[in-house]
Amino acid sequence: MDRQQTSPPQGMVLLPVRPEAGRRLVLVTVFVCAACGLVYELELVALATYLLGDSVTQASVVLSLMVFAMGVGSLLAKRLRCRAAVGFGLLEAALALVGGLSAMALYASFAWFGDSVVALVVFSLTIGVLIGAEIPLLMSLIQRISRRDADGTVADLFAADYVGALVGGLAFPFLLLPWLGELTGALGTGAVNAVAGGTLVLWLFRADLTPRWRARLLMVNALVLALLAGATVMVDDFEEAARRAVYGPEVRVAVRTGVQEVVLTGAPSTPPDLFLNGRLKVRGHDEHRYHEALVHPAMHGPHERVLILGGGDGLAAREVLRHPDVRALTVVELDPEVIRLARSDPGLTALNDHAYHDPRVRVVTADAFAWLRQHHEKYDVIVSDLPDPGITASTKLYSLEFYGLARRALADGGRLVVHAGPTARPRTYWTVDATLRAAGFGTAAYRVRCAEPGAASGPERFRATDRGTTDWGLLLAAEGRTPRLGIGPDAPPLRSETQDTLAQEASAAERTRLPDLPPSTLVHPRYTP
């Protein structure tokens, strides 16, 4: 901000308090508005990541658009400096309304139109312009109180702005998100924003307003607060309606955990479908095709001690426990709510054959990467039933370092099986293969076709409204050798997999091979959504 922009306007304003107290009130308002502004940004990033996936891309889009728009807003604010009090009052009312309703609008766009990209861009730009216009107008207002040097005033304003951003950034994940959730948290932030801006203008700078403008601003702020309050009252009904638009009318269970949203759908008399963060993980009527192919080829050999990474739904555990010579099974799942549902929901427990009631099963609630680093037990079989590598949060679970830890956990002659995303995305699939090979494994590639084309029931990243995946890509790995792909003679009767179908699908998977791909590491992830 140059000296011409920060020079104080001619004349002073009559305040209801001493000038020094008025100056402090302006700085407090800067602090509150900065905190609210950062909460709006984080709300958009969090909700866009949940709805669209790939947190790095969504954070980059939101933050870059907002920073650009803030520059535009600063330039546009110069036109309002001659009527700074009126301009700031209208600006904060607009920001409170747009920011407060942004999360609901983004969720509505996803639920009823199947896409949130346009809404994300529009709200990022709009909120950025409004935030960017705040500081120039507040600079004009504070200079109406005191004719202090411009440099000192700028320093005070930006100090209050940065501290407010710090508080807002910490309040969002530790207070607003766990206590209020994304939608109510955004609406509450909008209300705080409206009260702070309205109080500053209508009380501290009321002498700068004509009676007509005082009445107008009072009505505008009252309307904004009424709209935010009404939306808050309707949040539960809105969420239920949006959830039904996404998942269909037969939502049985919907729980927002500290990790993700968990939804079970389907009629009580049918096997349930399981969605995690809006993405279909289990399609009840054909999930056996995926889980049989995932587990039983890896069980061809010693399998007394088995480790499942992910798979909290208990369906991979069900297949493992069908082998009577399994002595111990450890399941490492990040979300305890998924485990709770797999133990208690009638439909899910019927589907997993009450796997968690088996005394051979030990459940650990932990991040798979961190758990492997801290534990040194040996396992004959490791089943990696984890989310798709195309999701940014999952890339570390498909990294060279992760497979190094898995290799350390394998007993001599042990086998690792990995869900690696559909072969329809060959670059992602064969990057997993290249990463396993770089970690010292030999691999055998194969796939499983969906019972219905486009109907995913493995842990794919597609939203409930998405279609297009036709298979699950799997990789069987063994240290230093290429494992034999097959089903052991002692395997229990299977509904879908046979030696012939495995051989056919292995050949089909090989036809999609992309050679010479580099491995993915923690510092250089190579998976694309």
TrEMBL record:
InterPro entries xref list: MFS_trans_sf (IPR036259), PABS (IPR030374), PABS_CS (IPR030373), SAM-dependent_MTases_sf (IPR029063), Spermi_synthase (IPR001045)
Record-listed spermidine binding positions: H291, D313
Entry's transmembrane regions: 25-52, 58-77, 89-113, 119-142, 154-177, 183-205, 217-235
Keywords from the UniProt entry: Cell membrane, Membrane, Polyamine biosynthesis, Spermidine biosynthesis, Transferase, Transmembrane, Transmembrane helix
Active site: D385
One Pfam family, short name: Spermine_synth
EC numbers for this chain: 2.5.1.16
Region of interest (Disordered), ranges: 483-529
Catalytic activity: S-adenosyl 3-(methylsulfanyl)propylamine + putrescine = S-methyl-5'-thioadenosine + spermidine + H(+)
Binding-site positions, S-methyl-5'-thioadenosine: Q260, E333, D367, A368
Primary location group: membrane
Localization terms from the record: Cell membrane
Presence of the UniProt keyword Translocase in the record: no
GO molecular function: spermidine synthase activity
Domain PABS: 232-467
Stated family: Belongs to the spermidine/spermine synthase family.
Family annotation (HAMAP family): Spermidine_synth
Quaternary context: Homodimer or homotetramer.
Protein function: Catalyzes the irreversible transfer of a propylamine group from the amino donor S-adenosylmethioninamine (decarboxy-AdoMet) to putrescine (1,4-diaminobutane) to yield spermidine.
Record protein name field: Polyamine aminopropyltransferase
